[in-house]
Design brief:
Layout (H helix, E strand, L loop, with lengths): L9 H10 L15 E5 L2 H5 L5 E12 L8 E6 L4 E6 L3 H7 L5 E8 L8 E11 L4 H7 L3 E4 L4 H4 L5 H16 L12 H6 L5 H9 L4 H33 L9 H11 L6 H15 L5 E6 L5 H14 L3 E5 L3 H22 L5 E4 L5 H13 L4 E4 L13 E6 L7 H8 L6 E6 L5 H8 L3 E5 L10 E6 L3 H13 L3 E5 L8 H18 L5 E4 L5 H12 L5 E4 L12 E6 L7 H8 L10 E6 L4 H12 L3 H17 L2 H4 L13 H17 L9 H10 L1 H9 L1
Helix pairs in contact: 8-9, 9-24, 9-26, 10-13, 11-12
The structure holds adenosine-5'-diphosphate and magnesium ion.
Magnesium ion binds next to α12.
């Protein structure tokens, strides 16, 4: 049935609903209440000041306003008591709207009750009820009513909270009729029985029209289970697809010799955690299963060198390795450190491996040369930016792909690099520790390695929180360090590089630092609107010690390594996410000296203060990421780029981590047992996947 025939909808509203994606009556089943209100007797309402409720009764009096600016006051009687409801605005219309002896439901906030006076309701909405109408009588049976988000489209057609509630109710009633199951079941009998889960129909009905408020959570979790189950099922399929169905490269290598040459070329001792991860990488690369690994490790934990070991394994079997980074500075840095290391390795192992940098903006002649070397196989390790995934880049035989700071790339970009080889092994790296639940939800198809230990020569960065009135003190602290020959970062927030005002204030501050505060020192500046080589030149000067104080926006966020920089001041720290602050802070504390990070915050409220104090107390990126997720929510955690990938209707990853683990276990068991989903008992799942997740399956096959 077209929704325009649904009671309360009609032509105009049907158009509005279509704009928010509701065209069939079944679409209402996907609605999720934003809140619930209890329907109470007026006598009960008296005892509930400050609460939102609905009351149902008969209008016994309509008090007309003395002046047009005064409210119309309705008196409602439900035989337990009387309630007075003043309604402001459009008083002439209102006065005619309510008729004596007619029945209404009113929604609003209960006022303070005074002895001897009627209690009042702070009006929010009402609907008229016809007690002889069967539909309306059914509506009255529910002790709790759902309230939904009202989009602008709906508001434009005068849909108010209770109107929408009643429309949704009418849809449910239309579908349920005498209560048979209309919401198609998406879970198998076995799961429903095995875990005593209610049916989908029951869950959907009770999520919207619960009989007791305590029920809601149980039904919400049931639906969250389903959401997470299908997500995990896709991840299980994807993983299976990659690992079992696709043949990858089995890299054969003399691991003893490789390890001994590798160690000779190192100028430090690997941490236990690095060794453990190297082993994990080796066993993946040795096998002919395609490697798909996420390497998590806090800033400075030494992921790069670990990835280099993997590159060497590929090189020893005659394959190329590629490392893709989100920025040119980072690519340049990796290129330099990897080249240095490979030079030493070549000397130790008697090899002649070649490392190449491929980034945008290189001169045409150089670029052509580089592309030729990549294509001919003359170069073995290719470090670059997005430039790597352009069409004209052909590899001789790409066997190992590494993506640094992978959350800065989209799924497609990662897939493109992978496609430059033939089923190459893939490792993605991130220095933003990801809370466990998020990791399972987003990267549940990947194997995970964690470097959970910093090199022994590191000292945790000391972090302090200062009010911006204490700046003088901060600058003199910075100067103390500069006098000792150290270097400092001063970071200004430019969340979005297009924010002109922010950039301007960073520039003004830069001049002030240069000409006044640090006039005895060399001050430099980098920001995202500079050209990459300008940034790079400045960064290089900083790295070489030609600059003492580097004023910067967040362009220095990722991976930079400058051991002599021991102080970082972060201005307006309250504007950054915790994980981002932790990452920024990771730019100092990279040498053996004690480093310091000073968070300067303006207008600091209790919440931001508490938030920032987490950072002063902890240098554990995983712990910080958990707090960050709890504060900002899973969607914001990764920033905008990835938040859209997972959009849950009912799941709350923070509350539902237990459900996630359960759904994951069951989903993986099913795929393990019946990878093609051919068993009769799994037919339900197969059908849901084919009808609702076609796009994901498509994406899964390319990415
Ligand atoms: P991240 O994990 O943040 O990418 P990097 O790989 O850039 O960290 O390593 C940070 C610095 O630590 C580099 O200068 C690197 O050479 C050094 N490093 C890596 N591993 C060790 C180690 N085991 N001992 C000492 N220094 C190390
Ligand atoms: Mg790094």
């Amino acid at each position: 049935m077209d929704i325009k025939y649904l009671k309360g909808v009609g032509e105009k509203r049907a158009e509005a609903f279509a704009k928010i994606g509701v065209t069939k009556i079944e679409d209402f089943l996907a609605f999720v209440p934003r809140a619930y209100v209890r329907k109470v007797s007026i006598q009960q309402a008296r005892k509930m000041p400050g609460e939102n409720v609905v009351v149902f009764g008969k209008v016994t009096f309509v008090k007309h306003p003395a002046r047009p600016t005064h409210p119309v006051t309705i008196e409602l009687d439900d035989s337990t008591d009387l309630i007075e409801i003043p309604i402001f605005g459009a008083s002439e219309f209102r006065a005619k709207q309510f008729r004596l002896d007619e029945h209404y439901i009113f929604y609003g906030k209960v006022g303070e009750a005074y002895k001897g006076y009627n209690v009042r309701l702070d009006y929010r909405d009402h609907i008229k009820i016809n007690p002889s109408d069967e539909n309306d009588r059914d509506f009255l049976k529910y002790p709790i009513l759902p309230v939904y988000e009202l989009s602008g489209e709906l508001k434009a057609t005068w849909v108010k909270p209770l109107t929408l509630t009643r429309i949704v109710f009418n849809a449910f009633r239309h579908l349920h009729k005498d209560d048979p199951a209309p919401a198609g079941e998406k879970l198998t009998e076995k799961i429903l029985e095995g875990y005593s889960l209610p049916s989908r129909s029951e869950a959907v009905l009770r999520l919207n029209f619960p009989m007791e408020i305590e029920q809601v959570e149980r039904y919400r979790k049931r639906l969250a289970f389903e959401e997470l189950f299908y997500l995990q099922l896709l991840l299980a399929l994807k993983r299976r697809n990659l690992k079992e169905e696709t043949k990858g490269i089995s890299f054969g290598t003399d691991i003893r010799k490789l390890t001994s040459d590798f160690v000779k070329a190192l100028n430090f001792e690997l941490t236990q955690a690095q060794k453990k991860v190297i082993n994990e990488i080796y066993s993946d690369m040795k096998s002919d299963k395609v490697m798909n690994r996420l390497l998590q490790g806090d800033v400075g934990s030494g992921k790069t060198i670990v990835s280099v070991f993997g590159m060497l394994i590929a090189l020893q079997s005659g394959y190329q390795s590629a490392l893709m980074c989100p920025t040119e500075i980072l690519a340049e840095q990796h290129f330099t450190t990897i080249s240095d290391f490979i030079n030493r390795f070549n000397a130790a192992a008697g090899k002649d491996y070649k490392v190449t940098l491929l980034i945008g903006g290189q001169k045409k002649k150089l670029r052509t040369e580089i592309l030729n070397d990549i294509k001919s196989g003359k170069t073995n390790i290719i470090v670059g930016t997005h430039a790597l995934i352009q069409e004209n880049v052909d590899f001789a035989n790409l066997g190992f792909v590494i993506i640094d700071e992978q959350h800065k790339f989209g799924v497609m970009q990662r897939a493109k690099l992978k496609d430059k080889g033939f089923n190459p092994d893939v490792m993605v790296m991130t220095a933003t520790p990801i809370p466990r639940t998020l990791a399972l939800a987003y990267y549940g198809d990947l194997d995970t390695s964690v470097i959970d230990e910093l090199p022994a020569n590191r000292r945790p960065v000391r972090t302090y929180l200062k009010k911006d009135t204490a700046r003088g003190e901060v600058w003199s602290f910075v100067k103390d360090n500069l006098r000792k020959g150290r270097q400092a970062f001063i970071i200004y927030p430019i969340i979005d590089e297009s924010e002109k005002l922010d950039l301007k204030s960073a520039e003004i501050n830069f001049r002030n630092h240069k000409e006044n505060i640090f006039k005895d020192y060399n001050v430099g500046m980098v920001h995202g609107r500079m050209l990459w080589y300008e940034i790079e030149d400045t960064m290089k000067d900083f790295k070489d010690g030609k600059i003492d104080v580097l004023v910067s926006t967040t362009v220095i966020e990722v991976g930079l390594d400058i051991p002599n920089a021991t102080v970082m001041v972060i201005e307006e720290a309250q504007r950054f996410g915790l994980s981002q602050l932790h990452q920024l802070r990771g730019r100092v504390g990279r040498g053996a000296e004690q480093s310091h990070c000073i968070l300067v915050a303006k207008y600091i409220d209790e919440v931001s203060k508490k938030r920032l104090e987490t950072l002063c107390e902890s240098t554990d990126g995983f712990k910080i990421s958990e707090v960050d997720m709890e504060i900002r929510g899973p969607g914001e955690f990764f920033g905008t780029r990835q938040s859209g990938i997972l959009s849950f209707a009912v799941t709350d990853l923070i509350k539902d981590s237990d459900v996630l683990l359960q759904a994951r276990k069951i989903a993986f068991e099913i795929i393990n047992d019946d990878p093609q989903l051919r068993k009769k008992e799994n037919a339900v799942i197969r059908n849901v996947l084919l009808s609702e997740h076609k796009d994901s399956i498509y994406l899964m096959n390319i990415a």
